[in-house]
Amino acid sequence: MTTSLDQLQSGQFAGARQLKLACGLTEFPRAIFDLADTLEVLDLSGNALSTLPDDLARLSKLRIIFASNNQFTELPEVLGECAQLSMVGFKANRIRVVSGRSLPPKLRWLILTDNAIETLPAKIGHCSLLQKLMLAGNRLRTLPDAMSSCSRLELIRLSANRLRELPGWLLRLPRLAWLAYAGNPFAEALERAPSSAIDTQIADVHWDALTLERQLGEGASGVIYRAARRLDNQDETPQPVALKLFKGAVTSDGLPECEMAACIRAGHHPNLVRVIGNVKQHPMNEHGLVMALIDPTFANLAAPPSLESCTRDRYAADARFDLASVLRLAYGIATAARHLHARGIMHGDLYAHNILHGGAGRALLGDFGAASFYDVDDAALGFLLQRLEVRAFGYLLEELIERCEEGSSPAVREIEALAAACLSEDVGSRPSFDAIAGRLRNCEASF
Question: DSSP assignment, residue 267?
Answer without folding.
Answer: -
